[in-house]
Design brief:
Helix content is about 20%, strand content about 25%. It contains six helices and eleven strands. The strands form three sheets. Strands 9-8-7-10-11 form a five-stranded parallel beta sheet, sandwiched between helices. Strands 1-2-5 form a three-stranded antiparallel beta sheet. Strand 3 and strand 4 form a beta hairpin. It starts with a strand and ends with a strand.
């Protein structure tokens, strides 16, 4: 482990940087891929998405880890110099070829909590260039939000950020409540989703109702 720093003010999310060799870096080809992590040989693996974009010549992976019981909590208690076991990158990642930019330029990103990790990798990879991109990112409040200091950078790169906060303001508002399909052109729209099943199911249902084909709703598993 290279470093372990808080990723949110409440302390529940940690930004972890791990040193990787060249073969490991080459194995990470598509944003949305993840690794299995263990703190010991007999430990139960935690599946953690990679938060940094692919870089075949890179030497590190950035991860966003949510503190909870088990391996994830153990990782959050580790420090630079500690050893952690990591599998090669796994999973298909986000296959944006399912929705080419010239046919589906209107691209919606949906994430809740630590699910922003692979979405960040996708944004920073440049794979969304040429698209009209809006991110709906749901958290309880700013203190529970990872990468909040990068929002301006993302917007400068052409991503409209809609930060949906369930514990700020009036009645609770969630990502599935924030999406407006009234003026959506479903024939030109695709979506990338990461987060709680309740959210992804409700959002896909709303998108299908607006004419977005389910196969244009891309997930990383």
């Amino acid at each position: 482990m290279v470093s372990n720093t808080p990723a949110s003010k409440d302390g529940g999310l940690h930004s972890i940087v791990l040193k990787v060799d060249n073969e490991m870096a080459k194995g990470y080809a598509t944003p949305g891929q993840f690794c299995q992590l263990r703190t010991s040989e007999d430990g139960k693996p935690a599946f953690i998405a990679i938060a940094s974009p692919p870089d075949a010549d890179g030497t590190t992976f950035e991860l966003l880890v949510k503190r909870q019981e088990g391996t994830a909590g153990e990782i959050c208690d580790m420090a630079g110099g500690d050893t952690i076991q990591m599998s090669p990158p796994m999973g298909p990642g986000f296959d944006m070829n399912k929705a080419p930019a010239d046919q589906f330029p209107d691209t919606l990103l949906f994430a809740t909590g630590s699910g922003i990790s692979p979405i960040r990798a996708l944004i920073k990879s440049g794979a969304l260039a040429g698209r009209n991109v809006t991110l709906y990112y749901g958290t309880a409040a700013p203190s529970y939000t990872a990468f909040i200091d990068e929002f301006k950078e993302w917007e400068a790169a052409g991503v409209t950020v809609e930060h949906v906060q369930s514990q700020v303001g009036g009645p609770p508002t969630y990502v599935q409540d924030a999406i407006d399909t009234k003026d959506m052109d479903g024939a030109k729209t695709c979506a990338v989703l990461v987060g709680q099943k309740e959210m992804t199911t409700a959002v896909i249902e709303a998108l299908e109702g607006a004419g977005v084909a389910k196969e244009r709703c891309i997930m990383n598993f």
